[in-house]
Amino acid sequence: MMTKKIVIDKAHGGKDPGAVGNGLVEKELSVKICDYMYDCLKDNYTGFEVKFTRTTDVFVELSKRAKIANDYDADVFISNHINAGGGTGYESYVYTNASAASKALQNVLNDEALKTAKKYGLGAHGEDRKRGNLAVVRETKMPAILTELCYIDSKDNKLLKNDDFLKDMAYAYARGVAKFLGLKAKTVTAASAKKYHTVVKGDTVSAIAREYDTTIAKIKSLNNLDDKYMIQIGQKLRVK
Q: The domain that contains 71 carries what CATH number?
């Protein structure tokens, strides 16, 4: 199987912060999302390689971002953004006259994104599958999509301050790209399937169970907890 090439665009950067609001900065959130997306891909799939349009806090012209992807001969381009303007919800864009492949990428990625967003009470911002004459999806020669996670200057900001939300949405993007490219999933061994959580102030067993979609009883059994479910800050709990 040929190695698939993925370009992940960390939006804005350097002198261009992107949208700013509620103590949040778009260029910083984009870096988090893109890095989480890469983590998901490398931990769960094989047969691909990734190039970022920037790896430091620098400004990269829109045409340069597209050129990076074109010169790399990428199979997929994804540019990850945060929205502004007082709305709410997720949306994405492909080029106004998008190819059938770009539309297919948008369909599969949005399905994953909206399924994950729903867990946090977030829906689509109107029509989630939008078209636009945006430079990075217009000038790229491969299937390309630009995501707008949600709004930095509305109630959505509470979600953007939640790293679990950012990570879950980034993983949804990664799954969408992997499905579109037909990437092979890594074999999961018993050891790699185990998951752990380090207890921090304010944690409870019930809250940890909800976070990892498991049960209190399961966490109690895996960690030999007493009937009072006593845990301590810094304790490493197995959750799966």
A: 3.40.630.40
pLDDT, tens digit, for every residue of 185-231? 998 665 556 789 999 999 999 899 888 888 888 898 899 998 888 99
126: alpha, beta or left? (left if phi > 0; alpha if psi -120 to 50): left
Q: Residues 29, 117: one domain?
A: yes
Three-state SS letters, 173-228: HHHHHHHHHCCEECCCCHHHHCCEEECCCCCCHHHHHHHCCCCHHHHHHHHCCCCC
Question: Exactly one of 26, 91, 139, 148 is catalytic; which is it?
Answer: 148
Q: For the chain, what is the domain count? A: 2
For the question of residue 61 being annotated catalytic, the response is no
CA 51 distance to own-chain centroid:
16
Residues 155 and 201 reside in one and the same domain: no
- pLDDT 10s digits, 116-153: 999 999 999 999 999 999 999 999 999 999 999 999 99
